[in-house]
Amino acid sequence: MIPYGLQQIDSSDIDAVISVLKSDFLTQGPAVDSFENAISDYCGARYTVSTSSATAALHLACLSLDVGPGDLVWTSAITFVASANCALYCSAEVDFVDIDPNTYNICTKALEEKLLIARRQNKLPKVLVVVHFAGLPADLEKIWALSKEYGFKVIEDASHAIGSSYQSNITGCCKYSDITVFSFHPVKIVTTGEGGAAMTNDYLVYKRLRELRSHGVTRDAQDFDAIEESEIWNYQQILLGFNYRLTDIQAALGTSQLKRIDNFLKKREYISSVYDRSLKNLPLTVQFRNSDRKSSHHLYVVRVHQAIHKNLYNCLRESGVGVNLHYIPVYLHPYYKKLGFGIGYCPEAENYFKEALSLPLHVNLTDDQQEYIVEVLSRHLK
Ligand SMILES: *Cc1c(COP(=O)(O)O)cnc(C)c1O
Questions:
Q1: What is the DSSP letter of 98?
Q2: Average pLDDT in the 128-139 region?
Q3: Whose CA is nearest to atom 5 of ligand 1?
Q4: How sure is the predictor about 221, in pLDDT bands with cuts at 50, 70 and 90?
Q5: Interatomic CA distance for residues 236 and 252, integer angstroms
Q6: DSSP state, 281?
């Protein structure tokens, strides 16, 4: 089976990991600092906090923006479940905004309409989690303007989107958000095995993210609670935090991978352009990519007629083409249905769900494999 995503590990990655294994620190050592600095340098964010996953980073991001019981968090209906679960971890409520039928990103018109209603009902969100679907940045400038008008914070879930840019701003710089999150899962653009990061330009948010990542314990004497002088050692727990740390083993892999990101992005762009050309005359539609932004081409999604969707999925997989569905609308999962959501809530998301398939797209994909995928797809669509 040709997988839809696959990491590329070379000998420099392996050497980087081995050198950490031979060093004094397996975790909480210098490789983590180097990786965080490399990410900040790459995307121009002032601060980067690495984490054990993007899911952990999203959780910490919500907590750092004071999301808690009674608060509302909104996100796009078409995303990985983690973009919504982070709100539930904080005992907040989650709600969904429909997608744009062409870009598959959050629809800013639907967002604006929902905000107007929410203001009347006094139920405005505290945070919006914006997903850059398939690596294509959402309408950040518009969303940021709405966030100022309606008073909510913005977290970019850029799990698909390291290396993408919006206008001339590289994703992660947080020009139009409070926090941006990356994922380093093996199917994503660069990998640490498991891993994630949260970027911000706000020093207080940064400090909060760091404290929460490691048990809520601080070693910064300025933050110590003023208990009896004789009771003060060099650390205190001041918040209820977690162990969401990235290890030095993972960080070394990440730094090594990041050195090749330009090649990874070029290869993904090349594969996408071959699909664009080869599929042009077939009865399917592909993601519209706005001209003022650059995608990192995490996914290549095609939409086909609803009547053949399921059958095509099965046929392609039987032919060894590892297509996937990204994603089921989050609110249609059984867990979310039990919270009261149901069919018809976001019509565009549901149409998308009945038509979408992700074709294999990763840096190891060969021309021959891609030709085969196109041939099998063409055969079934004609
Ligand atoms: C992969 C992904 C996540 C979760 O990433 P992990 O690092 O696996 O926790 C979150 N959001 C989106 C949109 C993703 O694609």
A1: P
A2: 98
A3: 54
A4: confident
A5: 29
A6: T
Give the position, in ligand 1's atom list, of the atom nearest the Cα of 194.
Answer: 7
> What are all long-range contacts of 216-221, with beta carbons under 8 Å and residues at least 24 apart?
216/240, 216/241, 217/241
Radius of gyration (C-alpha) of the chain in whole angstroms: 21
Q: Is the CB of 131 under 6 A from ligand 1?
A: yes
Residue 239: band (very low, low, confident or very high) from pLDDT cuts 50, 70, 90: very high
Write the secondary structure of 140-179 as one string of H (helix), E (strand) and C (coil).
Answer: HHHHHHHHHHHCCEEEEECCCCCCCEECCEECCCCCCCCE
The number of CA neighbours under 13 Å toward the Cβ of 319 is 19
Of 157, 182, 330, best ligand 1 pocket probe by most atoms within 8 Å of the beta carbon: 157
Q: What is the pLDDT of residue 179?
A: 99
Give residue for tokens 């990440």: 254
> Measured from the CB, is residue 53 less than 6 Å from ligand 1?
yes
Q: How do strand 153-157 and strand 127-131 relate by DSSP bridges?
A: parallel
Residues 6+ apart with CB under 8 A from 371: none
Q: List Cβ neighbours of 21 (8 Å cut-off, separation of 6 or more).
A: 249
Mean pLDDT of 124-143: 98
CA distance 321 to 377: 9
Listed residue (210, 188, 214) closest to 199, CA to CA: 210
Give pLDDT tens digits for 74-101. 999 999 999 999 999 999 999 999 999 9
By three-state DSSP, how is residue 25 classified?
Answer: coil
DSSP class of 27: B
Helices (H), the chain: 11-21, 30-43, 54-64, 82-89, 108-120, 140-150, 203-213, 248-258, 261-278, 309-318, 334-337, 347-353, 367-381
**Is there an atom of ligand 1 within 6 Å of 159 CB?**
yes
What pLDDT shows up at residue 368? 98
For residue 78, the CA-to-ligand 1 centroid distance in Å is 13
| Cα 249 to the center of its chain, rounded Å | 22
